[in-house]
From TrEMBL:
Residues 234-447 form the AAA+ ATPase domain. InterPro entries: AAA+_ATPase, P-loop_NTPase, T2SS/T4SS_dom, T4SS_GSP_E_ATPase. Belongs to the GSP E family. This is AAA+ ATPase domain-containing protein.
Length: 480
């Protein structure tokens, strides 16, 4: 009954495209929930810390009994391998207390994104590549019920009046060090989604991504990592730019490791994705308007609201997960009034585009402010712009630039490191990382802060007798 050509990683989802097995799942599901001894109230009454594991055990006992009952009936009996039997029981459990067909994809460590385009079409990103998976929901109503279950677990609400939700979900898991799987969920239903409900899930790494792992993955070089460590230690303000899924948040998380544990960090996000390792961290998250209120935007708390409030919380560092709108003005004001060491991300295709987008956001928040003054504020606020990109199946830092000031009404930027693609070998992008050739001006900040070259040799030495400036020699090319 099982399609042997399927990738081994997806043996658990084969039940969702085998009609005979799927019919069996639906039959056992109905028998289980209709069993006179089965109690949804019992499941709802379980303590939160044990709810997932205990509810799955509870449902499994009933599902196994129903499988045995069917096996005794010659008219209902379906020939099952042991693997089929386990897959059917697991699918029943997922339907009752899980997220249905999504569960095996959420459990698959190779999957980073799950994209559901109505009930018939499900795609995943695995190892940097998008591919369809052989599962589907019964119909759009089935998908909608799963979406509602997910949204309820995020303490949000979705219906035809409020047909969009963007939220985070923390799930219990045995694989993560802290026992939590973190995902971001975006759902859109009718009437906005014309063909039926759609769902986008981004899974975040269950292990903290370090700079060393990013080096091993080819995202950056040892010298680049050493410089970025110095940037964090010297409390320079950093803007990380890139497209969707380019690794901006991952890099921000990795850089945050080098913030002193003695500093008070405030993080501000629309949907909480950052997971800093320090203890002295206050995490703030926006709140959408009350969907039941007739008053526009009642109850809404924006990133701008949180940023203004954070300035009264005695922060040493402010980290804005992603700057998107009016909060850009308050962020610049904070950076220009002594709040150094701030980090944030922005959607843009180049370092220059990132500053232009930032200027536009500030202009929209302060219509009477001149473009020259805004650019001057940006040039004084940010010291470093890092550009991320997805190249083939990999994510790379394709540029680290220093903001060096203003020339007339143009913000000056200097390349510190760049990545140049030279070709493609199968799915692997080939290229070279090279320094820009000129040492950055912020080296003076390193020296003023007492940062020694030895402090920056965490990822490989730059050589005996070398100085800061040797790291930026244009001949130090790294081929990947």
């Amino acid at each position: 009954m099982r399609d042997e050509s399927l990738d081994d990683n997806y043996h658990r989802v084969s039940v969702y495209h085998d009609k005979e097995l799927l019919d069996l799942v639906n039959n056992i599901h109905t028998m289980t929930v209709n069993n006179e001894f089965f109690s949804h109230e019992y499941i709802r009454g379980l303590k939160e810390e044990k709810k997932i594991t205990e509810s799955r055990k509870y449902v499994k006992n009933f599902a196994e009994l129903q499988v045995e009952e069917i096996a005794k009936d010659p008219e209902k009996r379906v020939p099952l391998t042991q693997e089929d039997r386990e897959s059917v029981i697991e699918a029943v459990i997922n339907e009752i207390v899980g997220y249905g067909p999504l569960e095996p994809l959420l459990e698959d460590e190779t999957v980073t994104d799950i994209l559901v385009n109505t009930y018939k079409h499900v795609y995943v990103e695995r190892r940097g590549k998008l591919e369809p998976v052989p599962i589907q929901f019964k119909d759009n109503e089935h998908l909608l019920n799963i979406i509602r279950r997910i949204v309820e677990d995020t303490y949000r609400h979705i219906d035809r009046v409020s047909p969009m939700v963007d939220a985070r979900l923390d799930r219990e898991t045995d694989r993560a060090a802290d026992g939590v799987q973190r995902v971001r969920v975006n759902a859109i239903i009718e009437p906005l989604a014309i063909d039926g409900p759609t769902l986008s899930i981004r899974k975040f790494p269950e292990e903290h991504m370090t700079l060393q792992r990013l080096i091993d993955n080819g995202t950056l070089t040892e010298d680049m990592a050493n410089v970025l460590v110095g940037v964090c230690q010297a409390k320079l303000n950093v803007l990380i730019s890139g497209g969707t899924g380019s690794g901006k948040t991952t890099l921000l998380n990795a850089l945050s490791e080098y913030i002193s544990p003695r500093e008070r960090i405030i993080t501000i996000e629309d949907t909480a994705e950052l997971h800093l390792l320090q203890e002295h961290v206050v995490r703030l998250e926006t709140r959408p308007p009350d969907p039941n209120s007739q008053e526009a935007n009642k109850g809404e708390i924006t990133q701008r609201d949180l940023l203004k409030n954070s300035l009264r919380m005695r922060p040493d560092r402010i980290i804005v997960g992603e700057v998107r709108g009016n909060e850009a003005l308050d962020m610049l004001q904070a950076m220009n009034t002594g709040h150094d060491g701030s980090l944030t991300t922005i959607h843009a295709n180049s370092g220059r585009d990132a500053l232009i987008r930032l200027e536009t956001m500030v202009a929209m928040a302060s219509a009477n402010t001149s473009s020259y003054f805004i650019r001057q504020s940006i040039s004084r606020a940010f010291h470093v712009v890092i550009q991320m990109a997805r190249l083939g199946d990999a994510r790379k830092i394709i540029g680290i630039q220093e903001v060096t000031g203003m020339n007339d009404d143009v913000i000056n930027m200097q390349d510190i490191f760049i990545f140049r693609q030279t070709g493609v070998d199968g799915d692997k992008v080939r290229g070279e990382f090279r320094p820009g050739g000129m040492p950055p001006k912020f080296i003076e900040r390193f020296e003023a802060k007492g940062i020694q070259l030895s402090d920056m040799e965490r990822f490989g030495s730059v050589g005996v007798g070398a100085s800061f400036y040797d790291m930026f020699d244009s001949n130090n090319i790294v081929h990947v």
